[in-house]
Amino acid sequence: MFSFIRWQDAADIIIMSFLVYQLYGWFKNTKAFQVVIGLGSLGVVYLVTKNLGFFMTSWILQELGTALFVLIIVIFQSEIRQALYRFSPLRNLFGRQDNGRLIDLVELSNSIFSMAREKIGALIVFQRKEPLDEYLLHGVLLDSVVSGQLIGSIFRDGTPLHDGATVIRHGRIYQASAHLPLSVSSEIPQYYGTRHRAALGVSERSDAAVVVVSEERGEVSFALAGELRRIDTPETLAGVLNGLLYSPVQEGTKPSLWHRLHRNFWSKVITVLLVFITWLIITAREGEITNTLAPVKFRNLPENYLLTKSYPDGVEVQLKTVSSLIPAPKEGEVAAEVDLSSFKEGSSSIPVRKEDFRLPPGIIVTRVKPSAVKVTIEKKVHKWLQVKARMTGEVPGKRRLRKIKVEPSAVKVEGPESIMSRLEIIETEPVALSGIRQSTTVEKKLVAPSTQVRLLGDGNVKVTLLLTR
Fold this sequence. Notes:
By secondary structure, the chain is an alpha+beta fold. A hairpin with a 2-residue loop joins strand 6 and strand 7. The termini are far apart. The longest helix is centred in the N-terminal third of the chain and has 22 residues. The radius of gyration is 40 Å and the shape is elongated. It has 4 domains: 108 residues, no CATH class; 143 residues, YojJ-like (1 (3-Layer(aba) Sandwich); 90 residues, Beta Complex (RNA Polymerase Alpha Subunit, Chain A, domain 2); 79 residues, RNA Polymerase Alpha Subunit, Chain A, domain 2, CATH 2.170.120.
């Protein structure tokens, strides 16, 4: 179908695959992702019905798609804002938060497992880089030092703040009894309660690390990036929290490029295939073919030469868009730029090539008519010409024009050799003598004898008229 794939197309597919995979990784367990799957299914049905000629069904789906686009922006504005925040290249500079004072994670982990043995339910959220304020509801501000005894006191049954989540930010307890958004994933086991759904909900929407203590089973679980896993020992929990909150990644522990490429390998392969198929569908729908008149411009003419003639001034060019999604250029937006650096004095026929057109991406030239323009190139000549004042009419009354003085008396001009060889003088604009009553000086502009002759000064001279008494 296609004779070749440009490097721009390969880069386009790689960039879109990266973006789609990132969005999939962030929202795969969220309600928004389920909606996107449903919309994608409707899109496939729309393409099939349109290509099969089902006009009513395709029309209804097209109108429904227009309304759904607006509804998605309104309903999922939080998810859209989160995605834009994560894509921002400046978030690591301006969004990075100081971890504050260090927490005794060993003591805190022992207290958490002590609550688990006593079957005291708990939900502890550790804020990392991404802010959590938009997900916290009805929390009580504390701003206190983190300690295992205080955490145990907060979640003990009967205390005012035991219901809800405790949020730790910058190494201090920021809020207690805060309500979190619940996960709507259908893959959560039935025996998980509200605490676990809240832990997964906030971890799906941010990079927060969440520790959950089950009141029924006395288990400690850890939620991160929408995934929940059980923690068996205080030492394991302390190590996980230390690695996420404080410990920098050492060079030896950084995953290799090969490991990162093969992690979730089949998900990445499927993403690339889907993007590639979408690209094939888009590019397979060839755009329209249009004809437009493009002016011919010239560049890189040597300094000591002048272009005196060119014919024709424009060429008819046939353009083709590689996809129907690309709009055809309007008249006047396309021009040919012909390089004259290798041409010398005389008349010659210069080909207008497809490469001489500067076009937007996705538009190609299929035909140029005529395929060449005729040009005449001459040497550029500099010459001094005598200035002559051009007079019209007569001096009124008995006075007569005794003398005419022009300053400067000569000016320097440049032009093609064929014209400059015939020139000796240059005239001013007409000076009307009928309005002269006494000796005076007027300022006039010089008139170039040809459009190809250029004045090298400002083009103004002073004409002094002396009358008899």
